[in-house]
């Protein structure tokens, strides 16, 4: 059976750490590299529900997109849910690895998958990585032909399994050259504008980014953070399973977006 270290070696060849943003906390967060990894679960975020699922399923390793320890942590107690979750995993011997922004930018990472599923061609990094210029953050490319924004929104909703989309419609309401960036990546709007994209698909965007998009006449499509990343996390489980068929690998079945839609 593979060890945690072997799973990590594969993940870091698939999503090289060099692609991670400098501020990020990627890598093995909890656990021993020599530990066994017979049962592995992937998730987007390590919540109490996800941790409880891992314990009940006798999982030995979790691959979480978002690192559970991000800012400086000076103590671990059960005083809050985040720290209690970490303690629960440690007590149950569950290793935790996070690829985060390395997976966002990888050759077959979240943004690449999103671009390909949307049907983009000639896909390239939206913001090339200075260390690995052929890769980088975000993606951009072109649809085979120009289509109305309405039709493109239907494609985005289907690909991301979004229950709703927020969007800014530019004057012409057509789209062909498209940029994508998963998660909270509204600051990539300037890159999309620089590349003369007519549409930018993003997980999260601030109000002022929406105002900028309207002023610059670029369509902005906001899928929601969860919807922009969760499908790729499920695909990652399949990728790991293909590489390590002797292990049981599955995405969390209890994970869901914390946000709900209210229609008065």
Topology of helices and strands:
Blueprint: H1 4-14, E1 27-30, E2 39-43, H2 48-56, E3 61-64, H3 81-91, E4 95-98, H4 100-105, H5 110-117, E5 121-128, E6 136-148, H6 149-160, E7 166-168, E8 174-184, H7 189-194, E9 199-204, H8 207-215, E10 219-222, H9 225-243, E11 248-251
Parallel strand pairs: 2-3, 2-11, 3-4, 8-9, 9-10
Antiparallel strand pairs: 1-4, 5-6, 6-8, 7-10
Helix pairs in contact: 2-3
Spell the H/E element sequence: HEEHEHEHHEEHEEHEHEHE
Return the CATH topology of the largest domain: Udp-n-acetylmuramoylalanyl-d-glutamate--2,6- Diaminopimelate Ligase, Chain: A, domain 1
Arrangement of strands in the largest sheet: 5-6-8-9-10-7
Computed over alpha carbons, the radius of gyration is 19 Å
Name of the CATH superfamily of the largest domain: NIF3 (NGG1p interacting factor 3)-like
Q: How confident is the prediction overall: mean pLDDT?
A: 94
Instruction: Determine the strand fraction and express it as a percent band.
Output: 25-35%
Q: Major beta sheet, specifics?
A: 6 strands, mixed
The coarse silhouette is globular
Tell how many strands the DSSP assignment holds. Answer: 11
What share of residues is helical? 25-40%
Question: How large is the count of helical segments?
Answer: 9
Count up the domains: 2
> Structural class of the helix and strand makeup?
alpha/beta
Poorly predicted regions: none
